[in-house]
Design goal:
The chain has 406 residues and is an alpha/beta fold. The protein contains 15 helices and twelve strands. It folds into two domains: 232 residues, Type I PLP-dependent aspartate aminotransferase-like (Major domain) (Aspartate Aminotransferase, domain 2, 3-Layer(aba) Sandwich); 133 residues, Aspartate Aminotransferase, domain 1 (Alpha-Beta Complex), CATH 3.90.1150.10. A seven-stranded mixed beta sheet has the order 1-7-6-5-4-2-3, with helices on both faces. A five-stranded mixed beta sheet has the order 8-9-12-11-10. Helix 8 links the parallel strand 5 and strand 6. The termini are far apart. Bound molecules: pyridoxal-5'-phosphate.
């Protein structure tokens, strides 16, 4: 961190975590080195015992990981204070993917017999981890409607094996939101560890630490990287001792480490986070208004429209409503496929949060193999289109949508 206080979010994006390169390179070079050398056995011992700061082995740490970990931790804590009024501090651990970071989170805190409580409409990979992998280890996920606070409280109260609360808001792909202040308050009341997937919002739009969350998590593959150049995940914890201890141990031993090149790309991507998010959100609002008034389009799910059921929660806890939306084509499956085929500038792809607008048709792509009745219970109907609005000139996005819809 620079000595001069960084007072603006974009300054933190650009400078936090950077240390002067010994050879005066402007950017931290990519440290493509699996191991680090010592001057002496004595120095090796000091490094291993933690008496001396330094690098040992790239599965554990590297200058490229450290830079981006400090940057993301500073962004998630930006402008926040701890219980004593001092600037809030947190520690982050970079992983090879979002799923890798989630594995560290759950395996650090949960053991056989423990349960994690969460809500409907999670990212599909997280839901599968809950349904297929954690049960093999004797860990159970209790999934409920967390919009219903009373019901959530009574489930937690009646089951002392629930140890963790896991929230994703806005959630992928439905954009449903849950009330961070109320739910994290509940987690504290019952002594649960609380963790929030902040991938869709980024720290620019929403800071779960401001509501007291213990952990914040990101698939950095999305808006943080911003350019679709690398897969990654990061886990940020406000208990720095636990991050240095149990979390770091799980991270090292699971082997879900990132690599210096991906970390370098992520560092550069984050530098423009505020600029990109402002533009993403501005474009998304225009696109949502356009789609909302279009004759071929039925329902538009966008958190900036008052018709979204979670408009009020989002307005309370997010700076802007984000850049993700989904909408229903009146003509069903055939209309969905035709629309997707006609796109000329917007890209047909899954993933999200890149500079380019990405559009996917879940019924013919990501959920092609899921029986119709089942996917419809998740809200994924035949004509549903999911869109990650990019930062292109908005008229070009609108023109492309218009010609594809006509
Ligand atoms: N959480 C959310 C909200 C996601 O959208 C994704 C991926 O799409 C993940 C977690 C998993 O991240 P990754 O694909 O980087 O492993």
């Amino acid at each position: 961190m620079k000595q001069v206080p960084l007072t603006g979010f974009s300054s933190v994006c650009a400078h936090a975590g950077h240390t002067q390169d010994p050879l005066y390179a402007h950017l931290t070079p990519i440290y493509a080195s699996s191991t680090y050398v010592y001057d002496s056995a004595e120095q090796g011992m000091r490094r291993f015992s933690g008496q001396e700061d330094g690098f040992i082995y790239s599965r554990w740490d590297s200058p490229n990981f450290r830079e981006v970990e400090e940057k993301v931790a500073a962004l998630e804590c930006f402008g926040l204070s701890d219980a004593n009024g001092a600037p809030l501090r947190a520690k982050a651990k970079l992983h090879a993917s979002g799923m890798g970071a989630l594995s560290t989170l759950f395996l650090t805190h949960l053991k056989a017999g423990d349960k994690v409580i969460s809500h409907y409409s999670l990212y599909g990979g997280t839901e599968e981890l809950f349904r297929k992998i954690l049960p093999q280890l004797g860990i159970e996920a209790v999934i409920t409607d967390m919009q219903d606070l009373e019901k959530t409280a009574s489930i937690i109260e009646s089951d002392p094996s629930i140890r963790m609360m896991y929230l994703e808001t806005p959630a992928n792909p439905t954009l449903r939101c849950v009330d961070l202040e109320a739910l994290i308050g509940l987690a504290k009341r019952f002594n649960l560890v609380s963790a929030v997937d902040n991938t869709f919002a980024t720290p620019y739009l929403q800071q779960p630490f401001s509501f007291g969350a213990d952990y914040v998590f990101h698939s950095t593959t999305k808006f943080l990287n911003g350019h679709g150049t690398a897969i990654g995940g990061i886990l940020i914890g406000r208990d720095e001792e636990r991050m240095r201890g149990a979390v770091e141990k799980t991270h090292r031993l699971l082997g879900a480490n990132s690599n210096p090149f991906d970390a370098f790309l992520l560092t550069q991507g984050i530098k423009t986070l505020e600029l990109r998010m402002e533009r993403h959100c501005h474009n998304a609002m225009e696109v949502a208004g356009f789609l909302d008034g279009h004759a071929a389009v039925g329902r538009v799910n966008y958190l900036g429209l008052t018709s979204h059921p979670d408009f009020e929660i989002a307005a309370r806890q997010m700076k802007h409503p984000g850049a993700m939306m989904s909408f229903e084509l009146k003509g069903g499956l055939e209309a969905g496929k035709r629309f997707i085929d006609r796109l000329q500038m917007c890209l047909r792809a899954v993933s999200l949060g890149t500079t380019e607008t990405l559009i996917c048709h879940p019924a013919s792509m990501t959920h092609y193999g899921v029986p119709k009745e089942l996917r419809e219970t998740y809200g994924i109907t035949d004509g549903l289109i999911r869109m990650s609005v990019g930062i292109e000139t908005v008229n070009d996005i609108l023109n492309d949508l218009d010609q594809a819809l006509s």
